[in-house]
Amino acid sequence: MERRQEKKGRGEVMVTFHIIPDLNCPEETLRFSKEQNVVFEYNDFIFPDMLDDTKGVEDRIALYRSLGRDMSKDTMHGAFFDVTVFSYDAKVREISRFRMRQSMEIAKKMGLRGVVFHGNYLPFLKRTQYDANWLSYTEEVLRELAAEYPETEIYLENMFETSPDLLGVLAERLADVKKFGICLDYSHALLSSKDGNPWFDRLSKYIRHIHVNDHCFDGDVHMIPGEGQTDWAEFFRLREAYAKDATIHCEVAGIEAAKKGIAFLRSYL
């Protein structure tokens, strides 16, 4: 997987940054993408009402294609609202699989590098069978999708987890699936423990993509990096030590926020 594109700072520090494309300012977004060599992560296709609108999905895909960009290094956020492939309810598992397959199909049509999904694990349901179901059903679905869409990478992102351990077990089980990796959401990790080191340490072999934004440890509010209380020097130290080839998505809304976030993050390189 080719990820090293950008050389900056001391030594050879190369990072591929992603931003959310701003359709309110498409020309400015395109200009910034070209000038700063950043790629996109699409958030358009996470909502059930969008996924149920076949024409709307096709129109949005056509719109992005019309921008004339190479989208092969872009990623997208897959469906995650109420997606519970490990549910006790077979009907819920069925629609969850359907939504995830829709996401993969969109990525295939757009020619994207990969899709990010949430595991949607609930850490407070401390039951052995709950963990077993989460592991077995999630592994099963991800294997199915990887086999069905062999050209598209699949990343599973931590969301509610308070520990990286179960994600680590899943990643170990899927180690033979070359297109699978972990998307470490650093902000989510810090909300659970204020210490990112255990997450990087446990998941280091599998981290392919990283989501970042800022907060003050009181909620997942997606502030611009540098405007909250995250220790960014520590983040870049951990990334260099454990996941230096991982791409970084500056997950903030709007092109002006993205510009500020990217400039701030690059100041550490």
How does this model look, in words?
The chain has 269 residues and is α/β, with parallel strands linked by helices. It is 43% helix and 13% strand. Helix 5 packs across helix 6. It starts with 16 loop residues before the first strand and ends with a helix.
The whole-number mean of residue pLDDT values reads 94
What is the count of DSSP helices, taking H or I runs of 4+ residues? 10
Major β-sheet, in short? 8 strands, parallel, barrel
- Taking the alpha carbons of the first and last residues, their distance comes to 22 Å
What topology, given as strand order, has the largest sheet?
1-2-3-4-5-6-7-8
Helix-strand sequence: EHEHHEHEHEHEHHEHEH
- Compute the gyration radius: what is it? 18 Å
Approximately how much beta-strand content do the residues carry? 5-15%
Class computed from helices, strands and strand pairing: alpha/beta
Q: What are the low-pLDDT stretches, counting only 5+ consecutive residues below 50?
A: 1-12
Helical percent range? 40-55%
Shape: globular
- Report the strand count: 8
